[in-house]
Prior knowledge:
Strand 10 and strand 11 (320-326) form a beta hairpin. By secondary structure, the chain is of the alpha/beta class. The radius of gyration is 28 Å and the shape is elongated. It folds into 3 domains: 3-106, Rossmann fold; 128-197; 203-329, 2-Layer Sandwich (Heat Shock Protein 90). Helix content is 51%, strand content 19%. The protein has a 5-stranded parallel sheet with strand order 2-1-3-4-5, with helices on both faces. A 4-stranded antiparallel sheet has the order 8-9-11-10. Strands 6-7 form a two-stranded antiparallel ribbon.
Amino acid sequence: MKTSLLYVDDEMENLKVFSRVFKKDFEIYTAVSGEEGLEIFEKHPEISLLVSDQRMPGMSGVDFLNACKHINPYPIRILITGYADLESTINAINDAEIYRFIKKPWEKLDLLQTLNEAQKKFEMEKEIRSLDELKNKFMMLVNHELKTPLTIQRSYLEFLKESKLDEDQKLYLDKSLGGSDRLEKLISEILFFLKVQKEDLSKNHEKFELSAATGIQDLTGTEIESNKVYFCEALKRLIENAKEHKADGTEVKIEQETSKILIQNKMKAETVDLNIVLKPFELNEDAFNHTKGLGLGLSIATMILSKLGFKTKLESESGNFTVEINLSGI
Length: 330
């Protein structure tokens, strides 16, 4: 099935030439004005490529493409313009989110390559949108079809604790409750991981002092501007991870240097494979050991910091694990 394309130009001869040259490659719709183009665009949602001349009576090419963006933002927009219009056109490209502009007179092979690249971009973005939709459905499924029954099950188990049980029954009940707790935590972590992936963390930034925000005295005097809630969540997760995996009898050290925060601990293990712990859901021979987890803690924390604009460096050497957060990236 051919890709549907709408070409708008006020000169009929240009429309005929374009249709004749590209009719073998695309399903082409044409319009002699921006107003007519909008009517066609609204009637044919299958159109995935929009090509328009810039200089036309009434509605310009940029205005037409900008109007199309508000009807349906997904089709890829291409503008054909002459040298005289180039400077003013460049200033308007960002407003209409134009993919490419083509200088007059266009060459068939160059324009065909641009159209093919635009179509690949459209298909790729369509696939990403489909994955996002599946992700949303998965989040709803996990939240309603798994978390709710688990909560009910846990309530029944708690109710059983009030009953008269022998020692074996108490042991089985405790194991069931422990398993429920781990599963509930895993479900919550998965939902939060997916939420962070989707979230725009560039919003709601404010200046705050780290010690006051986190209660960590070692960070007294350090002030940053970021999304306070998410930065503190990432820092909390990194510290909790360090405490969970520290060697017995040792403490987690939190230090601040110039534009840096260091979180250090002696590990239970001699070394850690960073290629595994930073890959969420990565299964290995220790994946079913509950002390290892599924890599979500570090993955979520580093993802948050990255989306906030901070660089994070992790090192594992000779039984020591260090997380370095570079604050100069903001």
